[in-house]
Amino acid sequence: xxxxxxxxxxxxxxxxxxxxxxxxxxxxxxxxxxxxxxxxxxxxxxxxxxxxxxxxxxxxxxxxxxxxxxxxxxxxxxxxxxxxx
Length: 85
Prior knowledge:
Helices cover 25% and strands 20% of the residues. It is built from two helices and six strands; from the N terminus they run ββββββαα. The strands form three sheets. Strands 1-2 form a two-stranded antiparallel ribbon. It has a two-stranded antiparallel sheet with strand order 3-4. It has a two-stranded antiparallel ribbon with strand order 5-6. α1 packs across α2 (66-74). It is globular and about 40 Å long.
């Protein structure tokens, strides 16, 4: 079974080639998804704080508060390649 790689910006699973972003040479990125990275550039100039807020809707479970989702995101995002300080 092949290991699923997660985007190092938004943590989306990149379990198919179509979900991978692209480098300037057209090759697929091994680090970033198609939503975050195209043609060798990030698709957004968001800060970490902005990225966290933007991703809350996708990280919330039904009936869960924004704060619970935010806390879960903050356990992961600061450790991703794009956001490491």
